[in-house]
Amino acid sequence: MRKFSSSEPFQPASLLLRLAAMLYDSLIVIALWMLIGAIGVGLNGGEAVEGPFFKSCLFLITFIFFAGFWTRSGQTLGMQAWRIRIQTPDGFTITPLQALIRFFAAMAAALPLGLGYWWMLFDRQGLTWHDRYSESRVVRVPKPRKKP
Q1: What is the DSSP letter of 81?
Q2: Mean pLDDT across 102-129
Q3: Confidence band (pLDDT; 50, 70, 90) for 7?
Q4: What's the pTM value of the predicted model, to 2 decimals?
Q5: What is the largest CA-CA distance in the chain?
């Protein structure tokens, strides 16, 4: 695990910033799905690809995308664009187990009309369900200071 350096306390990321990063990342994930689909069609002799193996591949590539970014830098490409990141309460990158829990809990949080996400508006610490279950936080990354 890597410790993030900051002299300032971490501010929680707003729901709007999280949703903006999710939109950005969803476009990247859709592009990855299209790439996997194109490879599948090519390997399948030009026929459409379907079935549990193909769906499992899409699911796995989605998890690898998110978990890879979360455990290495704490930020997906969408999170980098909106200057937010995932970290432990102590300011470290999350572990692969935390990424796995967060991934599945985020899907569960989205199912009941996104209630697990909206929950942060009423939570005293501004945490979503998947923040709580994975013992992680989404925080704002401070702007880099300009050198004189």
Answers
A1: H
A2: 94
A3: low
A4: 0.90
A5: 60
Query: Token pair for residue 61?
Result: 């590539």
- Within 13 A of 66's CA, how many CA atoms are on the CB side? 22
Give pLDDT, residue 3: 79
Look up residue 79 and give its two tokens. Answer: 């999170």
Instruction: Kindly state the helix (H) or strand (E) to which residue 19 belongs, with its residue range.
Output: helix 15-43
Residue type, 143: K
Give the Cα separation of 33 and 35 in Å (integer). Answer: 5
**pLDDT band for position 24 (50/70/90)?**
very high
Backbone angles phi, psi at 12, to 5 degrees: -65, 145
Cα(46)–Cα(38) distance, rounded to whole angstroms?
9
Please state the separation of Cα 88 from the chain's center in Å: 14
